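Subject: Re: docking follow-up (pyridoxal-5'-phosphate)

Dear J.,

Thanks for your patience while I sorted out the input files. As discussed at Tuesday's group meeting, I've set up the holo structure prediction with pyridoxal-5'-phosphate included as the bound ligand rather than trying to dock it afterwards. The sequence and the ligand SMILES I used are pasted below, so you can double-check that they match what you have on your end before we go further.
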Amino acid sequence: MAAVKIGFYGHVRQYHNLKAEIDNAISEVLESGSYVMGPKLALLEKELAAYCKTKEAVGVNSGTDALWLALIAWGIGPGDEVITTSNTFFATAEAIWLAGATPVFVDIDPATCNIDVNLIEAAISPRTKAIIPVHLYGQAARMREVAAIAKAHGLLVLEDNAQALGARGDNFEIGELGNAVATSFIIQKNLGCFGDGGALVTNDPDLATTIRRLRNHGSLKRSHHSIGYNSRLDDIHAAVLRVKLTQLDKWNDQRRRIARLYDEGLKGTSLKLPVALPGYRHIYHLYVVETPGRDALQAYLQERGITALTHYPIAIHQQEGYPWGHSARISGSLAHTERSSAQVLSLPMYPELTAEEAQITIEAICAWDKSQK
Ligand SMILES: Cc1ncc(COP(=O)(O)O)c(C=O)c1O
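The structure tokens for the complex came back this morning:
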């Protein structure tokens, strides 16, 4: 058995570090008797909007629902196209399909793995209604360029911010330039609850009201309904997230410190390291390296007790059965997406990871890299 054990996630460490506050927050909800659409959700929504510097935040039950409900709220559906990337978590495209619309995939910028903004215009057709840039791995997409294209073509912009809460661009905030932002609170995110959760964040009060209605069976007022869904964020999750939100900047700073250790320790190797754009605040939801020897390196680390995972090893357009009888379109080549998905490896990255654990991981990677020469 390996002498060290460096896990991929730090959820339990994080819980132990905040145990008293979290236990107290949960117990307050339990004692209150108010579990759904209660006061903790209302408080979290206020605090999250303030954190994001937006007018509104609406809690829903997942990041997927935040994406999907925004598309539905905008009336995007069959016959409409939405431009995005194929190297993202499946839910980005799934939300477009769930709305009945057609995802149009463009390639990524190989440096950042975010959407290549130079390829967006060529993907626009008369049916295009929106763009979903994904702030992948914790770094904002080039939103100034995305917003300028959207404006020129009358398109909506929905930012997929499941991975980058607390990140910033060089001269913009996430949420400042798009029409809406979808975020996820699933446990492994930088701000995670103990289950599923998400939020739609926006400066558009009408959109926020529509999402509030849609998430609660089409109801804004007791006993008054139109068609909607059940997609609420429970008060227990909201209470936990309120505690954790106060720590988020500190945790993201810690992730950035670990990223510096990895950057420094791995810079002499053959691995492609993450690229942080100048002036951007990358918050390293994931620290993703690339190497053609990805599978071998992953196995080598695992043998030494270090768990590294892949995000995402199969691009959406390469999933078996794609597109499952639904419509989809690929604009140009997805060569960078395909190369990246075959080579990506995410190293352990969480605020509770110690410098010593990062160093052990670095040394193991360097030893593997040397053995390849
Ligand atoms: C980029 C991206 N989009 C969307 C989602 C969907 O979020 P959720 O799992 O909360 O539905 C996730 C994460 O799971 C994600 O990483």
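A couple of observations from a first look. Residues 248-266 form the longest helix (19 residues). The chain has 13 helices and ten strands.

Let me know if you'd like me to rerun anything.

Best regards,
T.
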